[in-house]
Amino acid sequence: MKRPVVILGAGGHAKVLIDLLVLQGIEVLGLIEQPGNVLKKSVLGVPLLGDETVIDAYRPELVDLILGLGSVDVSPVRKLLYDRFRLQGYRFRAAVHTSAIVSPHVVLGEGVQLMAASVIQAGCQIGSNCIINTRASVDHDCKIDDHVHVAPGVTISGGVRIGEMSHIGTGAVIVQGVKIGRNCLIASGAVVVRDVQDGSRVAGVPAREIV
């Protein structure tokens, strides 16, 4: 039996997750918002339960959590929340859309989110708490570390490595064999043809470092 879930976050990404979960017959008990942002009563009919302090009302052995934060600047927040609640004994549910294409020869970490029409090819490793968003494609033998967000429409060629907490912007292209460091930002529409060092921000065609 699938355990019910609580979603951490109440913005646009949470809406997409609600649709995905309902499609799979998974009960969504409610949404948790950041302190100071608890303004709504519900999202798509799912109640807003309050801020993080209400999680204690849900025992770790009875519910799963899902992170509903997906914007460009929240990778560190996603990591913080994931680490905090894992230490408290909670488990993060993977969310895989029914239209996602995933090779059986793929390793997926805890709490991975594979959104509609995403593609993960053979030999890939996708770390914990990663988002592979709508229509993003990850080709063979890629390794994506924890807490990475691959935004909608991204194309990642084979053998690419992406370090933890990096964000790959909408429609970006990463060519074969490139290595992207940790905590990097790849701008929307960038074409990455060479390695990117830790903490870098790159944009353009071909992608170059920006301040």
Task: Describe, in plain words, how this protein is organized in 3D.
The protein is built from two helices and 24 strands. The chain is of the alpha/beta class. The chain folds into two domains: about 5-95, Rossmann fold, CATH 3.40.50; about 95-205, Hexapeptide repeat proteins (UDP N-Acetylglucosamine Acyltransferase, domain 1). Strands 6-9-12-15-18-21-23-24 form an eight-stranded mixed sheet, covered by helices on one side. The chain has a six-stranded parallel sheet with strand order 7-10-13-16-19-22, with no helix packed on it. The protein has a five-stranded mixed sheet with strand order 3-4-2-1-5, sandwiched between helices. Helix 1 (about 10-25) links the parallel strand 1 and strand 2 (about 30). The model has no long low-confidence stretch (mean pLDDT about 95).
Features:
2 helices; Rossmann fold; six-stranded parallel beta sheet; 2 domains; 211 residues; alpha/beta; UDP N-Acetylglucosamine Acyltransferase, domain 1
Our count of domains comes out at 2
Strand content: 25-35%
CATH class of the largest domain reads Mainly Beta
Order of SSEs: EHEEEEHEEEEEEEEEEEEEEEEEEE
Q: What profile does the largest beta sheet have?
A: 8 strands, mixed
* CATH fold-level name of the largest domain: UDP N-Acetylglucosamine Acyltransferase, domain 1
Unreliable stretches, pLDDT < 50, 5 or more residues? none
How helix-rich are the residues, as a percent range? 10-25%
Total number of helical segments? Answer: 2
Name of the CATH homologous superfamily of the largest domain = Hexapeptide repeat proteins
